[in-house]
């Protein structure tokens, strides 16, 4: 311990006060730059989050509207079109392989336009690129988790559960 204490005293003796001030200023500047970079990265993430949430809002508004009010003659074509616009081909292939009793985007067999009044979309801060969609009242609330990724400057639904 005495050796490390003497090294510190040697540093103080050898480095003139002006140099110590400059070193302190340099390290404080580095810390400030790192802090600003961190804030910039967080702002970038929140911008991406807003874009992803906006995309999910458009998707669920058009999807619920079509499922609720769809014309039987054009329903399948319109639903496929909405899914192709907002989902990755990988996700659609994965869904197609499964024989599901319910719509995976709604966790239901049908929909009601009234669901749009209770639709809530928010970021899941525990998992990257993950969002939570919910609708319904407190007694019968449906929750869907979605992973959204950017592909060719467009946000798409990559996975859901």
Task: Name the helix and strand elements from N-terminus to C-terminus, one letter apiece.
Answer: HHHHEEEE
Number of helices: 4
Major sheet attributes: 4 strands, antiparallel
Question: What is the typical, i.e. mean, pLDDT?
Answer: 83
Query: What's the count of strands?
Result: 4
- Over all CA atoms, what is the radius of gyration? 27 Å
The portion of residues assigned to helices is 40-55%
Poorly predicted segments: 37-44
The strand line-up of the biggest sheet is 1-2-3-4
Strand portion, in percent? 15-25%
Report the principal-axis shape: elongated
Span of the ends, CA to CA? 57 Å
Structural class: alpha+beta
Keywords for this entry:
alpha+beta; 161 residues
Summarize the structure.
It contains four helices and four strands.
3D architecture notes:
- This protein is of the alpha+beta class and 161 residues long.
- The protein contains four helices and four strands.
- The chain has helices spanning 2-14, 17-69, 75-86, 89-97; strands at 120-123, 130-135, 142-151, 154-160.
- A four-stranded antiparallel sheet has the order 1-2-3-4.
- The longest helix is centred in the N-terminal third of the chain and has 53 residues, at 17-69.
- The chain starts with a helix and ends with a strand.
- The model is unreliable at 37-44 (pLDDT under 50).
Topology record:
Blueprint: H1 2-14, H2 17-69, H3 75-86, H4 89-97, E1 120-123, E2 130-135, E3 142-151, E4 154-160
Antiparallel strand pairs: 1-2, 2-3, 3-4
């Amino acid at each position: 311990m005495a050796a490390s204490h003497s090294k510190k005293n040697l540093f103080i003796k050898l480095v003139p006060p002006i140099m110590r001030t400059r070193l302190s200023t340099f390290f404080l500047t580095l810390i400030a730059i790192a802090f600003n970079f961190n804030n910039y990265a967080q702002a970038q993430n929140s911008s991406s989050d807003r874009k992803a949430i906006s995309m999910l809002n458009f998707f669920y508004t058009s999807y619920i509207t079509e499922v609720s009010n769809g014309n039987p003659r054009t329903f399948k074509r319109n639903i496929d079109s909405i899914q192709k616009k907002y989902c990755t081909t990988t996700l659609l292939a994965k869904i197609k392989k499964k024989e599901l009793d319910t719509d995976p985007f709604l966790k239901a067999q049908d929909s009601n336009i009234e669901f749009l009044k209770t639709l809530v979309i928010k970021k899941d801060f525990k998992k990257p690129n993950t969002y939570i969609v919910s609708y319904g009242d407190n007694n019968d609330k449906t929750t869907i988790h979605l992973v959204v990724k950017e592909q060719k400057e467009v946000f798409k639904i990559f996975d859901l559960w």
